[in-house]
Amino acid sequence: MTDLNDEQRQEILDAIKSGKKIQAIKSYREYTGQGLKESKEFIDRLTAQLLEEDPDAIQTSKVGCGTAMVAFSILVMLTYVGMVS
């Protein structure tokens, strides 16, 4: 991250640590003028390095298919209750 000033570097690190990898890639591209592929590869390497140094350094989201299924089930249940009433 030699092309970045301290503030830009910290912004990218904060984005990675808070689980906002896409934002980190966008910021890196904006600050360095690198392409998407190069920026993604850089952020992936940086993320791996951070995880190696401290596995708990990066927030991970546990939202996925299970959450979608719960939401869908609630929607179906509410629709059914509305039809029965």
TrEMBL record:
Gene3D superfamilies listed in its UniProt record: 3.30.1390.10
Domain Large ribosomal subunit protein bL12 C-terminal: 13-52
Superkingdom in the source lineage: Bacteria
Record flagged with keyword Ribosomal protein: yes
Transmembrane segments: 63-83
Annotated keywords: Membrane, Ribonucleoprotein, Ribosomal protein, Transmembrane, Transmembrane helix
Protein name: 50S ribosomal protein L7/L12
One of the Pfam families matching this protein, by short name: Ribosomal_L12
Any one Gene Ontology BP term: translation
